[in-house]
């Protein structure tokens, strides 16, 4: 349903210019600490894993170092797997799920797979619990040449030497109630379009690549996560967030064409997780555990089908 709901920045029907972006940015408040929540945890992992600073985000008075956690026993003959979290900074379990996976489970893959884990792609947005970077750009629509997002460009530079060797990429996300209350209305206002209300699914789901579908892989991940939290059902139209459900808990997007993080490699196995943290049936601990279960199931599937 198209609505005329007023967003407090800009003029309805007109895309934002620099003044509107500056107004929006001035309203964003730092609400948590990347240093405390992420960097200190990464520092504690240095004794067991290699930690690589792959870039720095320079936003004037604020500079954010970007880190990847990698297998210490890296062997060129082994398959490579990429885990990313926090591409949308407000999606909390993607960040903490990635870190919890490294701490509790990554060691059991030693000698079997080379791991690259990037737990927080977008630290400015993590601190402000937002979807965009300071330029009002969505990093998860910006994984392409000449990217307008520093976050996306830095990750692409990190991955470039291994792009053809990575066999698995799992990108950890959430779908939240604020997608409809804030982020999609803001997107419509930014682009000068009418806001069309959507429906938030209650439960976990996956996004497969329509240009490289791997249905057996997706169902293996769904089966593992179902032991931790509930899987989102299709709505009355047989859809989840406006896309047809192609299997229980699975929809498809064109990763590369849309500039999505999950399309940044040429991996055979790719997926985007979507946890629902606002469900009355899920706790923050369950949401983190669902992300961890998804990563482990994805890795196990890749290794079993190598």
Describe it.
- Belongs to the peptidase M14 family.
- InterPro entries: AstE_AspA_cat, Peptidase_M14.
- It holds the Pfam family AstE_AspA_cat.
- With 306 residues, this protein is of the alpha/beta class.
- The chain has a single domain, classed as 3-Layer(aba) Sandwich (Aminopeptidase).
- The protein has eight helices and twelve strands.
- The chain has helices at 18-26, 34-45, 92-104, 123-128, 150-159, 178-191, 215-225, 284-304; strands at 2-3, 50-59, 62-70, 80-85, 114-118, 166-174, 195-196, 205-209, 239-240, 243-244, 250-253, 269-275.
- It has an eight-stranded mixed sheet with strand order 2-3-5-4-6-12-8-11, with helices on both faces. A two-stranded antiparallel ribbon has the order 1-7. A two-stranded antiparallel sheet has the order 9-10.
- Helix 3 (92-104) crosses helix 8 and helix 7 packs antiparallel against helix 8.
- The model has no long low-confidence stretch (mean pLDDT 96).
Q: What Rg is obtained from the alpha carbons, in whole angstroms?
A: 19 Å
Shape: globular
Q: How large is the share of residues in beta strands?
A: 15-25%
Structural class: alpha/beta
CATH architecture: 3-Layer(aba) Sandwich
- What is the distance, rounded to the nearest whole angstrom, between the alpha carbons of the first and last residues? 46 Å
Number of helices: 8
Uncertain runs: none
Question: Could you please say which CATH topology applies here?
Answer: Aminopeptidase
Biggest β-sheet: count, sense, barrel? 8 strands, mixed
Q: Mind telling me the CATH superfamily name?
A: Zn peptidases
Q: In percent, how helical is the residue content?
A: 25-40%
The averaged pLDDT comes out at 96
**Total number of distinct structural domains:** 1
Q: How many β-strand runs?
A: 12
């Amino acid at each position: 349903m198209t609505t005329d709901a007023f967003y407090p920045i800009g003029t309805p029907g007109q895309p934002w210019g620099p003044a509107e972006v500056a107004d929006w940015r001035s309203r964003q408040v730092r609400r948590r600490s990347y240093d405390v929540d992420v960097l200190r945890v990464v520092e504690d992992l240095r004794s067991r894993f290699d930690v690589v600073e792959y870039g720095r985000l320079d936003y004037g008075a604020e500079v954010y170092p970007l880190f990847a956690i990698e297998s210490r026993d890296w062997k060129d003959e082994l398959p490579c797997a990429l885990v990313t979290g926090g591409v949308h900074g407000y999606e909390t379990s993607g960040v903490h799920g990635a870190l919890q996976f490294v701490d509790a489970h990554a060691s059991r893959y030693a000698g079997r797979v080379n791991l690259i884990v990037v737990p927080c792609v977008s630290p400015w947005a993590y601190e402000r619990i937002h979807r965009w970077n300071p330029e009002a750009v969505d990093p998860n629509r910006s994984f392409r040449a000449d990217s307008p997002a520093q976050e996306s460009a830095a990750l692409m530079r990190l991955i470039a030497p291994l792009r053809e060797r990575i066999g698995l990429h799992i990108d950890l996300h959430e779908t939240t109630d604020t997608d409809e209350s804030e982020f999609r209305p803001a997107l419509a206002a930014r682009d000068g379009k009418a806001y069309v209300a959507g429906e938030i699914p209650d439960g976990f789901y996956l996004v497969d690549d329509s240009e490289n579908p791997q249905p057996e892989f997706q169902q293996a991940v769904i089966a593992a996560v179902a032991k931790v939290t509930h899987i989102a059902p299709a709505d009355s139209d047989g859809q989840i967030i406006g896309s047809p459900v192609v299997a229980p808990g699975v929809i498809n997007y064109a990763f590369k064409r849309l500039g999505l993080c999950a399309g940044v490699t040429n991996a055979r196995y790719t997926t985007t997780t979507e946890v629902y943290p606002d469900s009355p049936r899920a706790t923050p601990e369950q949401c983190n555990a669902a992300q961890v279960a998804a990563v482990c199931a994805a890795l196990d599937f890749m290794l079993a089908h190598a």
